[in-house]
Design a protein that fits this description.
By secondary structure, the protein is α+β, with helices and mostly antiparallel strands. It has 3 helices and 8 strands. Strands 1, 2, 3, 4, 5, 6, 7 and 8 form an 8-stranded mixed beta sheet that branches. Strand 2 and strand 3 form a beta hairpin.
Length: 146
Amino acid sequence: MDGLRINVARFDELTVAQLYGILRLRSDVFIVEQACAYDDIDGRDAEPATRHLWVEAGGEVVAAARLLRNRDGAHHIGRVVTHPRHRRRGLAEALMRRAIELAGPPIELKAQAHLADWYARFGFRPSGDTFDEAGVLHQPMRLDAT
Protein backbone atom coordinates (compact mmCIF):
# COMPACT_ATOMS: atom_id res chain seq x y z
CA MET A 1 0.00 0.00 0.00
CA ASP A 2 2.78 2.41 -0.93
CA GLY A 3 1.61 5.98 -1.07
CA LEU A 4 -1.68 5.25 0.69
CA ARG A 5 -2.83 8.25 2.67
CA ILE A 6 -5.24 7.69 5.53
CA ASN A 7 -6.90 10.94 6.52
CA VAL A 8 -7.98 11.42 10.14
CA ALA A 9 -10.15 14.26 11.43
CA ARG A 10 -12.71 15.15 14.02
CA PHE A 11 -16.14 16.26 12.82
CA ASP A 12 -15.42 19.98 13.12
CA GLU A 13 -12.22 19.54 11.10
CA LEU A 14 -13.94 17.92 8.11
CA THR A 15 -14.68 19.99 5.04
CA VAL A 16 -18.20 19.86 3.69
CA ALA A 17 -16.92 17.84 0.70
CA GLN A 18 -15.16 15.30 2.96
CA LEU A 19 -18.22 14.85 5.17
CA TYR A 20 -20.46 14.51 2.12
CA GLY A 21 -18.09 11.92 0.63
CA ILE A 22 -18.03 9.85 3.82
CA LEU A 23 -21.80 9.95 4.29
CA ARG A 24 -22.46 9.23 0.62
CA LEU A 25 -20.16 6.19 0.64
CA ARG A 26 -21.83 4.83 3.77
CA SER A 27 -25.28 5.39 2.24
CA ASP A 28 -24.30 3.83 -1.11
CA VAL A 29 -22.93 0.69 0.52
CA PHE A 30 -24.89 0.12 3.72
CA ILE A 31 -28.29 1.44 2.71
CA VAL A 32 -28.43 0.95 -1.07
CA GLU A 33 -26.09 -1.98 -1.85
CA GLN A 34 -26.93 -3.95 1.29
CA ALA A 35 -30.60 -2.89 1.19
CA CYS A 36 -30.52 -2.00 4.87
CA ALA A 37 -32.62 0.86 6.19
CA TYR A 38 -31.00 2.04 9.41
CA ASP A 39 -30.21 5.27 11.24
CA ASP A 40 -26.76 6.01 9.83
CA ILE A 41 -26.76 9.65 10.91
CA ASP A 42 -27.09 8.77 14.58
CA GLY A 43 -25.50 11.85 16.15
CA ARG A 44 -22.26 10.07 17.02
CA ASP A 45 -20.34 11.44 14.01
CA ALA A 46 -20.32 14.89 15.61
CA GLU A 47 -19.28 13.87 19.12
CA PRO A 48 -16.07 15.68 20.17
CA ALA A 49 -14.11 12.43 20.69
CA THR A 50 -15.14 10.85 17.37
CA ARG A 51 -12.47 10.58 14.71
CA HIS A 52 -13.21 9.91 11.07
CA LEU A 53 -10.74 7.97 8.97
CA TRP A 54 -10.95 7.87 5.20
CA VAL A 55 -9.07 7.25 1.97
CA GLU A 56 -9.58 9.23 -1.22
CA ALA A 57 -8.87 8.30 -4.82
CA GLY A 58 -9.41 10.73 -7.66
CA GLY A 59 -10.99 13.24 -5.26
CA GLU A 60 -13.60 10.70 -4.11
CA VAL A 61 -13.91 9.05 -0.68
CA VAL A 62 -13.43 5.33 -1.44
CA ALA A 63 -13.04 3.87 2.07
CA ALA A 64 -13.94 5.11 5.53
CA ALA A 65 -14.36 4.20 9.19
CA ARG A 66 -15.15 6.02 12.39
CA LEU A 67 -13.63 5.72 15.82
CA LEU A 68 -15.87 6.48 18.80
CA ARG A 69 -15.40 6.60 22.56
CA ASN A 70 -17.98 4.60 24.53
CA ARG A 71 -19.33 5.66 27.91
CA ASP A 72 -17.24 2.97 29.63
CA GLY A 73 -14.04 4.43 28.13
CA ALA A 74 -13.51 1.74 25.52
CA HIS A 75 -13.14 2.79 21.93
CA HIS A 76 -15.51 1.56 19.24
CA ILE A 77 -14.63 1.14 15.57
CA GLY A 78 -17.59 1.25 13.24
CA ARG A 79 -18.92 2.14 9.81
CA VAL A 80 -15.94 0.42 8.12
CA VAL A 81 -16.79 0.67 4.44
CA THR A 82 -15.11 0.42 1.03
CA HIS A 83 -16.53 1.42 -2.34
CA PRO A 84 -17.23 -1.71 -4.47
CA ARG A 85 -14.72 -0.65 -7.18
CA HIS A 86 -11.96 -0.35 -4.58
CA ARG A 87 -12.40 -3.58 -2.63
CA ARG A 88 -9.68 -6.19 -2.23
CA ARG A 89 -6.96 -3.54 -2.31
CA GLY A 90 -6.26 -3.52 1.44
CA LEU A 91 -7.98 -0.19 2.13
CA ALA A 92 -10.22 -1.47 4.94
CA GLU A 93 -7.28 -3.32 6.47
CA ALA A 94 -5.20 -0.14 6.42
CA LEU A 95 -8.07 1.81 8.03
CA MET A 96 -8.47 -0.83 10.74
CA ARG A 97 -4.75 -0.87 11.53
CA ARG A 98 -4.69 2.93 11.79
CA ALA A 99 -7.82 3.00 13.98
CA ILE A 100 -6.33 0.37 16.30
CA GLU A 101 -3.11 2.37 16.46
CA LEU A 102 -4.99 5.58 17.32
CA ALA A 103 -7.25 3.98 19.94
CA GLY A 104 -5.33 1.21 21.62
CA PRO A 105 -7.21 -1.57 23.44
CA PRO A 106 -9.79 -2.08 24.66
CA ILE A 107 -11.67 -1.64 21.41
CA GLU A 108 -15.15 -2.91 20.63
CA LEU A 109 -17.02 -3.31 17.38
CA LYS A 110 -20.17 -4.84 15.99
CA ALA A 111 -19.06 -6.90 13.00
CA GLN A 112 -21.43 -8.04 10.31
CA ALA A 113 -21.39 -11.74 11.22
CA HIS A 114 -20.02 -12.88 7.86
CA LEU A 115 -16.98 -10.64 8.48
CA ALA A 116 -16.17 -11.86 12.01
CA ASP A 117 -13.21 -13.94 10.80
CA TRP A 118 -11.82 -10.91 8.98
CA TYR A 119 -11.92 -8.85 12.19
CA ALA A 120 -10.37 -11.77 14.10
CA ARG A 121 -7.23 -11.26 11.97
CA PHE A 122 -6.67 -8.04 13.93
CA GLY A 123 -7.08 -9.81 17.29
CA PHE A 124 -10.78 -9.15 17.86
CA ARG A 125 -12.68 -11.94 19.63
CA PRO A 126 -16.44 -12.53 20.00
CA SER A 127 -17.73 -10.79 23.13
CA GLY A 128 -21.39 -11.78 23.11
CA ASP A 129 -24.14 -13.46 21.15
CA THR A 130 -24.91 -12.57 17.56
CA PHE A 131 -27.85 -10.23 17.09
CA ASP A 132 -29.97 -8.79 14.31
CA GLU A 133 -29.53 -5.11 13.57
CA ALA A 134 -31.74 -3.73 10.79
CA GLY A 135 -32.03 -7.16 9.20
CA VAL A 136 -28.27 -7.90 9.25
CA LEU A 137 -26.75 -10.45 11.63
CA HIS A 138 -23.97 -8.88 13.74
CA GLN A 139 -21.34 -10.29 16.10
CA PRO A 140 -20.11 -8.12 18.99
CA MET A 141 -16.31 -8.32 19.19
CA ARG A 142 -13.59 -6.91 21.42
CA LEU A 143 -9.85 -6.39 21.25
CA ASP A 144 -8.18 -6.37 24.66
CA ALA A 145 -4.60 -5.56 25.57
CA THR A 146 -2.29 -8.56 25.31
